[in-house]
Amino acid sequence: MIFGALGLVALIALAVRLAGGDQVSSLHHLYLLPALWAALARGVTGGCLVGLVGGLVQALSIFPLIERAGPSWSAVDGIVSLSTPLTLGLAVGRLVDQSHGRGAQLDALLDIQRSLAGQGPLGQRLAVVAELTRRALGVDRVRLVLESGGGDHVAASAPEDFRPAETLPKVAATPCRRLVLPLDAGQGPAGALIVEKDWDLSTATRSAASALALHLTLAIENARLTERQRHFAHELEEKVAGATRRLRELDQAKNEFLTIASHELRTPLTALQGFSELLLTREVPPDRARRYLGHVHMESKRLGRIVGDLLDLSRIESGRGPDLQRVPLDLGEIIEANLEIFAPQHPRHHFDWSGAGSAPPLCADRDAVDRMLKNLLSNAIKYSPRGGRVRVETGIAFDKPGMVELSVEDDGVGIAAEALPRIFDPYVRVSNPETAAAPGLGLGLSLVRGLAHAHGGTIEVESLPGKGSRFRVLLPG
Ligand code: ADP
User: Fold this and answer.
1) pTM, entire model
2) Range(s) of the chain covered by CATH 3.30.450.40
3) Is the CB of 413 under 6 A from ligand 1?
4) From the alpha carbon of 375, which atom of ligand 1 is closest?
5) Which CATH superfamily is domain 118-232 in?
6) Which of 99, 119, 238, 381 has the most beta carbons within 10 angstroms of its beta carbon?
7) From the CB of 51, is ligand 1 less than 6 Å away?
8) Any ligand 1 atom below 6 A from CB of 445
9) First to last CA, the chain
């Protein structure tokens, strides 16, 4: 292209010579054209070069004219027309270079925004941004430092090993100029852009660096906002998925509950119907009749317990809570009374209770405490099917000031860690091949938790599969 412009200069020189030789004519203005062309196409270098050649070609005819005719208006005109191609080439070339520079910076900014909006660790993305910034500004070294929250910083350099703080004390082989610009979006500096160039930084580079620092700040803020939004959306998605999973589990648990509940209710009902029919339709000897009545009594109590549990749970679930009559209780006496019932019925289990006198004073609903203990004891027995030790303890909870604890520990099948958070939810039963035949509705523990909460207390569990479980009810003393 430069050669094209130079060819045009030659053509114009020929035309000028043919048109009148060495007179300064309006044809001299044509020398502006190749200078303009070169400046537009090649910037300041092309414009200056072609403008200079245009001027020199004119000088060949203008200087002899001045020599011959001496200083005259025509000579002045000639000198002006000689220098204008160079001036025009320089001025237009600079404007073109500046606009190319701006265009390149805008492209770089787009690339920077794209890299910042990408995936991956922020440090990695900053490294790409540092390299793009270095190229856009035409400097030798760039470092970006950003606050990443909590007083921490993320930094990246181009080239990678550029560490301004460490290079400071060294005596550099080449003198260089460094510019440190704060990255500030109006809420205080969020980091800094450090640019370094061997020898010196031009004014144009400095102002380009300042403009880029401002754009960078906004792009980084944007990227951070997008990241926060992405994180938030991801969290929300996980929460929704968790809630949906939970609802499905509850739905499944409810369905299972219906199956189990109908079975659990039918068992005592069948027994009640069977024995009462026998007593009504047959002549039964008095001792056998008494035995049958005993069964009827036991099964009706079982039925009553199931219905009672269901009613209590529905009260607790609807937020009404059970009616509590808080009275001073002798916890030791309640434990002993329960052990007297359970121990004879479960000879394969050894019941361990450190004895009366150790129980701290407690003000609570007697029936509620009794039902909590019964549920925990029957679970301890149910879920240690091969027999074993059941240990009951009570005392002041030293880790929870003002609380009285009542714990039931067994060395049964235990509970898998992933199931532990669910066992206090209603209708939830944890499947275990060893205890698959154990009756239950998955209501006991949710009832115990509901009763404990109604007292302002709580329930905790520790368990290891195959080793056993320990349930601890904490009630305000
Ligand atoms: P249910 O005993 O009627 O199934 P619960 O609400 O009392 O209902 O218990 C919920 C689940 O927690 C049980 O199905 C069982 O898997 C587990 N679980 C409760 N207590 C124990 C225990 N002492 N040892 C092992 N697992 C237990």
Assistant:
1) 0.52
2) 118-232
3) yes
4) 7
5) GAF domain (3.30.450.40)
6) 381
7) no
8) yes
9) 97
- Residues in the chain, overall count: 477
In degrees, rounded to 5, the angle at the alpha carbon of residue 221 between the alpha carbons of residues 215 and 225 is 145
The dihedral formed by the CA atoms of 66, 71, 72 and 74, expressed in degrees to the nearest 10:
30
What does the pLDDT profile of the chain (477 residues) look like in tens digits? 888 989 988 998 888 888 765 555 677 788 899 999 999 999 999 999 999 999 998 888 888 878 887 777 877 888 888 899 999 999 999 999 989 888 888 888 888 888 887 878 878 888 899 999 998 888 999 999 888 776 778 888 988 888 876 555 455 567 788 899 998 877 777 889 999 998 888 888 898 889 888 888 888 888 878 888 989 999 999 999 999 998 988 888 778 778 777 877 888 899 899 999 999 998 889 999 999 999 999 889 888 888 887 888 788 777 777 788 999 999 999 999 999 989 998 999 999 998 756 788 899 999 999 999 999 999 999 999 899 999 999 999 989 999 999 999 999 999 999 999 999 988 888 888 888 888 888 889 999 999 999 999 999 999 999 999 999 999 998
Among 260, 317, 383, 409, the mutation site with the greatest number of ligand 1 atoms within 8 A of its Cβ is 383
Q: Is 469 in the pocket of ligand 1 (CB under 6 A)?
A: yes
For ligand 1, is residue 381 a contact (CB within 6 Å)?
no
Name the residue of 409, 429, 441, 449 to mutate for ligand 1: max ligand atoms within 8 A of Cβ.
Answer: 429
Atom 13 of ligand 1: nearest residue by CA position = 429
Nearest atom in ligand 1 to the alpha carbon of residue 413 is 25
**Residue range 326-476, CATH number:** 3.30.565.10
CA of 69 to the centre of ligand 1 (A): 121
Ligand 1 neighbour 306 (Cβ under 6 A)? no
Whether the CB of 383 sits within 6 Å of ligand 1:
yes
